[in-house]
Amino acid sequence: MILALKALIALGALPAAVLSLWPIPKSINAGTTFLTLSPQFSIDITFQSPPADLLSAVETAHYYLANDNLERLVVGRGAYDVQDVQSAKALSSLKLSLAEGAQVNSISAESVKAIGTRSEDYQLDIPADGSAATLTANSTLGLFRGMTTFSQFWYQYDDKVYMVSAPITIHDSPAYPFRGFMLDTARNYFPPADIIRTLDAMSWVKLNVFHWHVTDSQSFPLEVGEFPELAQKGAYSSSAVYTASDVQNITTYAASIGIDVMLEIDTPGHTTSIGASHPEYIACNQASPWSTYANEPPAGQLRFTDPAVVNFTTNLFSAVAKTLPSLMVSTGGDELNIQCYTDDAQTQAELTSSGLTLEEALSEFTQSTHGALIAEGKTPVVWEEMVLDHNVTLANDTIVMVWISSADAAAVADKGYRLVQGPSDYFYLDCGAGEWIGDTPEAMSWCDPFKSWQKAYTFDPLANLTDSQKPLVIGGEQLLWTEQSSPNNLDSIVWPRAAASAEVFWTGATGPSGAPLNVTEALPRLHDVRFRMEQRGVKAIVLQPLWCALRPNACDVNA
Amino acid sequence: MILALKALIALGALPAAVLSLWPIPKSINAGTTFLTLSPQFSIDITFQSPPADLLSAVETAHYYLANDNLERLVVGRGAYDVQDVQSAKALSSLKLSLAEGAQVNSISAESVKAIGTRSEDYQLDIPADGSAATLTANSTLGLFRGMTTFSQFWYQYDDKVYMVSAPITIHDSPAYPFRGFMLDTARNYFPPADIIRTLDAMSWVKLNVFHWHVTDSQSFPLEVGEFPELAQKGAYSSSAVYTASDVQNITTYAASIGIDVMLEIDTPGHTTSIGASHPEYIACNQASPWSTYANEPPAGQLRFTDPAVVNFTTNLFSAVAKTLPSLMVSTGGDELNIQCYTDDAQTQAELTSSGLTLEEALSEFTQSTHGALIAEGKTPVVWEEMVLDHNVTLANDTIVMVWISSADAAAVADKGYRLVQGPSDYFYLDCGAGEWIGDTPEAMSWCDPFKSWQKAYTFDPLANLTDSQKPLVIGGEQLLWTEQSSPNNLDSIVWPRAAASAEVFWTGATGPSGAPLNVTEALPRLHDVRFRMEQRGVKAIVLQPLWCALRPNACDVNA
C-alpha cells in the first residue's frame, strides 16, 4: 500500500504529503501511513532523575500536541484526511532515552556549554504500526531537539490529532553549533513578554543563540546592579527597563528551551545613552551634524583614552558578565567614528599625555574590557571592524561577527578568528522598508532591498573560504535592528524569515535527499511551520495567498 | 507671554509644539497656551433632532478624549508639561452648530452622497481663555470631521487631559472628494473585526472611501443572497465568508464614521474562484502554465462571450448593488489576458457564432454589467485598462482607477473620464517585500522597491495634466494587495503609511503656511498620529527610534 501510494505520488496522481519539518533533518526516511495520537498518549522518560526542565519540556510538548489545532495544508484542509484518519492506528507513547553513558544534565546546563561542545543530536523512530515511538540522544538538549521535531508532525481535525507520514526514522544533528537571532532593544524597546515569545519561536526552529543587542546610543534599557544610574537616566522610561530579574527570567527561560543568550553592550561607539548618566565619559555627545560623528543619530562614543572610562567600562562588563549564564558576551565594536575623537579636546589631550595613538589606546581599552570578561570565564565577541579596520589585540578564541557584507568573511577568516555569519546583504531583517532618517523624501534604506526569506535561504556559509578556513565558521544569525520596529511588527518582520537561516545552519548545504537546499522544496515546509507558529500565538507574516499554501508548488513561476 | 514664547521658539531656545494634527487643516492659527479639559467637559449639540450617528460620534469623541492616554512626544514626555498644565485654564465645552439653513441629515446619509457633492468643511475655534470651543459646519459630516480634528489636540498625564496650542482657529475643507484606501480580502481573508478597526483608523485621518476588493481568483468570500454557491464553494472556508449581515454591518458602520464603502467584484479577469461553483463560466480555469493565462496564479477568466455568463454577471452585480448604500460600485477590469480566450474553444466558437470580435464582446459584456449598476442608481468604476487597453463603451460619468503607473493619469484624462489616483509606483503598500511566486530565489516583488510614506507623501495628484484635465482628478487611494498580508501584519503594513495620501488628498498641494507639503514638516505630526493610533489599538509601525520621535527633526539628515 505504501509503495502503491508512493507510485501514485511519483506519477503526480496524488499530492505528496509535505514533510512538515523545519529545519529538515539531516537524514529522514518517511512513509505515507496515517497515525493518530492516542488520547492516552504519553511521553515517557526511561532514565532516572530527569531534570526539571526536561519534565517541563515534556509538558510543553504535550501542550503543543493538544493545542496546535493545525489543520493540514491541503485543499479541503482537515476534511481531506478524514477517511485515512478513521482507519489509522494510534500511537500511545514516545519513549525518551539517553545513550549509554550519557550524563543526565539539565537542558539549561547543556544549552550554555561552550559553543561547539554541545550535543544536539538525536534519533527519532515512529513506527507505522502504533508501537511506541522512540527518541534517543546523547543529552537532554538532544532530547529537546527531538521532541521539537516530533511535535511538528501532528495535525488536528475533528478531535483527532494525527500524522500522515509514518513510519519515520530520523538521524539528526546540526551542521553548525551557532544558530542565532539578534534583536536590538535599544532603538525601540520590547517588553520581556515579546522576547519570551521570540525565544519560543526560535526554539521551534532549533535556533540556539539569542544575540541580545540590549543597549545602543538611543537608550540604555539594562539595569546593572552596580550602575543603576545607567538605566535610570539612559532608558526611554522607567517602564522601558530590563530589570535584573527580567534578565534572569529571560536567560533562565531561554536556557530551558535550548537557547543561549549572548548579551551585547556595544562599545566604545553606540554609547550616547551612557552619556545620560555619565556625560563626562562621552565624546561628541549628541554633536551636530550627527553625520560627521556617527552612522546614525545621536552621535556619542566612549572616551576610551580616559582611564576613568576604561575603568568604568571594564567594571561594567565584569558586573554584567557575572549575571549571565552564557559563556559568550559581546563588547560590540562596530562603526567607530574617528572624527569624533579628532574633534574631542579631552581625547586629544589624553593621547598627547599618554603618548599612545588612538588605535593603541583602543587596543588597550579592548584588552581591558575583554580581560574582565575572560576573568569571568567568558569568551569575548566583537563585530568585524575590530579585526578588519582596527589593529586591536584580541584573544585567539574571540568570536567575530561578520555583518557589513558577505564578502568580509574571508578577511576575518584570514586573521584566524572563529566567525559568525550575519551579513547585511542576506540576513538584515530591517532592510528595504524605506529610509527612517528625516528630510529624505526619495531615500531608501541603506541596505535596500528587502532581504526575502529566499535570499537568506540561499546564503552559502562557506563561500569564498579555503578548506582550512571553513571550520572557523561556527554558524550564523539573522538580525533585527529596530529603528522601524517595535512590538507591533516584531513577529511579522521576523517570522518566518528568521527560520531561513535556522535551516541553513542546522541542515547545512544539502538536505536529506543529498540535493542542495532549494527554495522550491522549502516553501511548502516553510508554510507549514509558519501556520504552526500562528497557531501558537506568533503573528508570522503569510508567504502567499492561502490558495497557494494549500497547493504545494502550484504558484511556482513555471507551474 | 505668547509672543515671548514664540520668540524663544523661533530662536531655538524652546521646542516648538508640534501641531498634532493629521491631515493638517487648510487654514489654522494656533497659539502656545495650555488648556486642560474640564472633568465636566461636554460636547453640546446646539440644534434640534440630532441624528443617532452624530450622538454616537459625540460619545466616541468623549471616549477618545478620556482613553487616548497619549503623553506628548517631548523629552520627559508628560512630565515636561506639568508646570504649564497646573496653571492652565480648563475648557468646559465644545458646541456643535450647523450653518444656517443646513439640513440635519445623518452622518451616514451624508457619507454616501454622490462623490463631489458631500460637505466635509468645518470651522473650529478653541479660545485660550477657557470659554466654550465652537465647531460649525454645513453638514453633520463636517461636524464629524471637526470632532476628529478636535480630538487630536489632547494629551494626557497624571490624570490631566490637556492641549498645548490654544487659541486655535481652523477653517478646513478637503482638497479632493475621494480619499480612499483599498483592501484586497481575496488573496488572504480578513475577519470583519480587522476591517472595522481599519475603518476606524481611516476615519481618524479623514479618509472617506473604503475600496473593498472583496473577491479575486484565489477566493470568493462574499455571500450574495441570490448566489449562495459562490461563497459556499469559492471561499477559503465557511468561516472565511463575509455574510450579508457582515456586509451590512461594515457598510453601516463605515457610513456612520464618514466612510463610503465602494465594493469591487473584479471581472471578467480575476474570477477563477467563480469557477469553484460555476466551472462552465470560466475559461482557462486553473490552466497551466498559469503565466501564459494570467498575471498571477491561478488562471481563470469569465467567458464573457457566453450569453449565460453575461446574464449571470449582470444579475450578480444587480444583486450586490441592491445591498450597498454606496453610489459607487467597481466592476474591476484589470489585467485581462487575451491568450486565455484565444485558447478557449468555447469562446472562439461563440465569437464565430456571434460575429463579434473579442473586444466587441467585452464591450457588450461591460455595457450589460454597467447597465445593471446604472439601473440600481450606481456609478460604475473600472480599472484603467478598460479605457486605455480596451475599446469599451462606458458611461461618461464612469470613474477610472489609475494603478499601473502615475504616468497613466494623463491618458485616462485624455479620454475625459474622472479618475482616482492609485498608482503602484507611489501607493502600493505591498511592494518591496520580496517575490511571493515560488521557485524564484533571487526575485524581488514586481513593483519593487517598497513605497515609503515619504514616497507616497510626495505624490503630485495633478502631475502631467492640463488645467482643463485637473478637475477630472477626484482623489486617490493607497492600496493593499494581500498576497503577503493577513491580519497578522495588516496594521503594520498599512499604518501610518496610508495616512500619507490622506493628507495629500485632504490638504492638497500646500499646507496652511502656503508652502508645499514636505516630509520634514510632516514627520513629527505623523509620529503623533501614529502614537495616537497605537493608543487606540491599531498596531501601526514605528517610523524612527523613540529617541528621534521625542526630538522633532533631530534625526533629519542634516541635523
From TrEMBL, chains A, B:
Domain Glycoside hydrolase family 20 catalytic residues, every copy: 176-508
Enzyme Commission numbers on file: 3.2.1.52
GO cellular component: membrane
Domain of life: Eukaryota
Pfam families: Glyco_hydro_20, Glycohydro_20b2
Stretches of the chain forming a coiled coil according to its record: none
Top EC class for this record: hydrolase
Signal peptide: 1-20
GO molecular function, one term: beta-N-acetylhexosaminidase activity
Catalytic activity: Hydrolysis of terminal non-reducing N-acetyl-D-hexosamine residues in N-acetyl-beta-D-hexosaminides
GO biological process terms on file: carbohydrate metabolic process; glycosaminoglycan metabolic process
UniProt cross-references to InterPro entries, sorted A to Z: Beta_hexosaminidase_sua/sub, GH, Glyco_hydro_20_cat, Hex-like_dom2, HEX_eukaryotic_N
Domain Beta-hexosaminidase eukaryotic type N-terminal intervals: 21-152
Keyword Signal: yes
Active-site residues, as the UniProt record annotates them: E335
Protein family according to the UniProt entry: Belongs to the glycosyl hydrolase 20 family.
Protein name: Beta-hexosaminidase
Organism: Heliocybe sulcata
